[in-house]
Amino acid sequence: MRLTLLAALGMSTISCATMPGASVAGSDSVQLVGLDHYVRVRSIAPSMNGQTAQLYVRERIEGRALLHGSSGVVLFVHGAGTPAEVAFDVPYSDYSWMAYLAHGGFDVFSMDTTGYGRSTRPTVMNDPCNLTRAQQRAFVPSLLTAPCAPGFATAATTIASDWNDIGAVVDYVRALRHVDRVSLVAWSLGGPRAGGYAAQHPERVQRMVLLAPGYLRTAADGPPAQLPERAAMNTQSGAEFTANWDRQVGCPDQYERGASAMIWTKMLESDPVGATWGSGVRRAPETANWGWNAAMVGKSQTPTLIVAGVHDKQVAPTRVRELYADLGAHEKVFVDLACSSHNAMWETNHTILFRASLEWLTEGSVGGTKNGMLRLGYDKEQKNAE
């Protein structure tokens, strides 16, 4: 079933699709219903300032919760390279974090900020000349005859444009589901995105879960007077994706090759243009970052669960511990997750992560702890070693 209508909130277009086999009646009421939404926002991204962007929002909810109400609303915010529907709703075994929380009683949404997935891509992202010279060389001679000068020479998006996108989606979801607050779950660069938004709008955020958040204590308080010259976007190939993951493997059977293959397939599906470049790449905008620093997080009171994979080589666990130390919230828990990398939600310990997030969002604690540092999964790691 598909339908399109104009929302009461602005002129957002919603496209709704019930997942195959799903129902909202009888014994099928525990099955998930999937709905696709598109939220319009006036962009403040440098690459399309003043234009209207459409932000893709995916929803997962059990049929019975759709009929009778959920335990609350959760919004997932992605990181620097992977769109949300791939990061959090990968259709492999029980690896969908969105589905796990939906089966836990929540009405679960994810969003793609400008430049990702099915959200509006700035036109500058269609020109491979807007990559770095090093990345351009990968497309010579298949796409380019030679490396070329960029037509757009700053980051395509900024942390402020991401906050603007998140604000539009949060307000849309709050109006759609008649709630005052939503909880935010974020990964990697999603940390500054979601955490910065929550720090500025605490009245709209219930709780947060941050996996491998890209925190920088010394980040500038505000934007520079002029954005520096840099590539507008970046790409990642399948080989680069696998190599980046493999360098973070620190224990046997940390991840399944089948999961990796499915994730990369969905990554290319999320970017039909990038899939035609060379052997196929995913594209992502470069983002100018500032604001989510010691001063900002020190004032934040949103109850927050922070998770770091012990083998993460993209966001060092020491940086994540610094966030825990600096965070002003009284209710905060840091989880040191065993046998896990930056991609913890796609690895064999994903259920430990999912369970902790559900407990935090439901109870405001993990294992009864509301404030403190925990080590999870190490008993399982020890048993496997024996």
What does this structure look like?
The protein is α/β, with parallel strands linked by helices and 386 residues long. The protein has 12 helices and 15 strands. Strand 14, helix 11 and strand 15 form a beta-alpha-beta unit. The longest helix is centred in the middle third of the chain and has 19 residues. The N and C termini lie far apart (51 Å).
List the helices and strands and how they pair.
Elements: E1 2-6, E2 13-17, E3 32-42, E4 52-62, H1 63-68, E5 73-77, H2 84-88, H3 97-103, E6 107-111, H4 133-136, E7 157-158, H5 159-177, E8 182-187, H6 190-200, E9 205-211, E10 233-237, H7 238-246, H8 257-269, E11 281-285, E12 287-288, H9 294-298, E13 304-309, H10 317-326, E14 332-337, H11 350-363, E15 371-376, H12 378-385
Helix pairs in contact: 5-6
Search tags:
386 residues, alpha/beta, two-stranded parallel sheet, 12 helices, 15 strands, disordered N terminus
Summarize the entry for a quick read:
With 386 residues, the chain is an alpha/beta fold. The chain has helices spanning 63-68, 84-88, 97-103, 133-136, 159-177, 190-200, 238-246, 257-269, 294-298, 317-326, 350-363, 378-385, and strands at 2-6, 13-17, 32-42, 52-62, 73-77, 107-111, 157-158, 182-187, 205-211, 233-237, 281-285, 287-288, 304-309, 332-337, 371-376.
